Amino acid sequence: MKPSNPKTPHSEPMTEWPTPGNPSPNQVLLVSTYFPPDLTGIAPYAGDIATDLRSHGFHLRVIAAAAHYPQWKYDTRPPIWKRSTAIDGETRLRVFLPREQTTIQRGAYEASFAALGTLALIPEPQADLVFAFMPGLASGLIAATAARLWRVPLIIDLQDLSAAGASQFGVTSSTRALQALHFIEAQILSRAQHIIVPSPAFRNELLRLGIDKQAISVIRNWTRLAAQEPTISSLPARQADAGQVTVLHAGNIGKKQGLEALVDYAMAATAHGLPLHFKVIGDGSQRDTLAAAASGLTNLTILGPVDEHRLRKELSSADILLLHEGPGVRDAALPSKLTAYFAAGRPVAAVVHSTGASGAEIRRSSAGVVIEDRTPIKVVTALAQLAADRDRCSILAQNGQSYVERELSAEARLAEIRSIISATICKT
Fold it and tell me: What's the rounded mean pLDDT across residues 98-124?
């Protein structure tokens, strides 16, 4: 292992990668479709890992798509290929963005990143290790190619199960397409020296694929928002006492979330005189469709994405935080929004599959309730009953914050990842 060489306040920044044979900090290539300034999903976590590695003396380069998520569009038209010249720089690529989340367009999106990212390896200096975020296959393909080309270890942070997700999220129902995705995903994962997953449900799927259990680590995504104060138990009378209950969903608005059901919930609440006001903050491929369906409803509000400061306020001012997944979604992904929900000091209501990854996380945290019956009147009745039970809300909120302190510390989780990276490089 190359000796660590963390920078001091008086050290001079390096302007080129060290030459072979000279002592140098460990050099890591991080590959991720999503990366800051993308605001949601795994992008902030990829950014946190990059910042942490650099702060501990690693030289890190990044290959990522130009910022486009969750709005699925570019703010300005970026160049096809933009490469920073700094040692700790980034190569950002203008990939094809799907107008609709169909099998063909989503496939073109992944293929464009895989192709451009692989070409970006040609001028890329060799690294000691390649680290891939895999919410999709493309980043794994690029990273596996780099690791094989340079004969260096590969670590994968597996945030989504692509093949299972394509089926559960409704991207494709083609048996041949799903078989191909399973094969490609299994091939990529089998080449990794270590795989990090955010949920035990993912580990179980990897074991079924034949991955060595010693090569798998469960490291939950950490909370990026400080715990909110005060908690429900010490709040003065809130909206619920004034006759209105705010139910907030914050984050991506895509097929995976199945938020079209909120229209039915809002209508059911109105029809049965329940004082629920649904609020959605975020962006995504289904935002315009949801907004059109919600037109005319006075108890369903849809807002665009907000910065972290505003998000903290919105989360802490809601009565209930809603986690919603489509009826077919089980264990293909674990929503990153849960970490912010737990830190907010609000009870969580999850309309998810009871045996899926999200349901398991709700039970583990004891910070919310799982609503299994998706019948609109059953959902809105459960939400109204939860809001009316302020003692229960207080307990759930406090449990969420305790879970954050106990399990979701950014410092501890980042240290675990850094340790795996260092140990993997040391073995080579």
Answer: 91
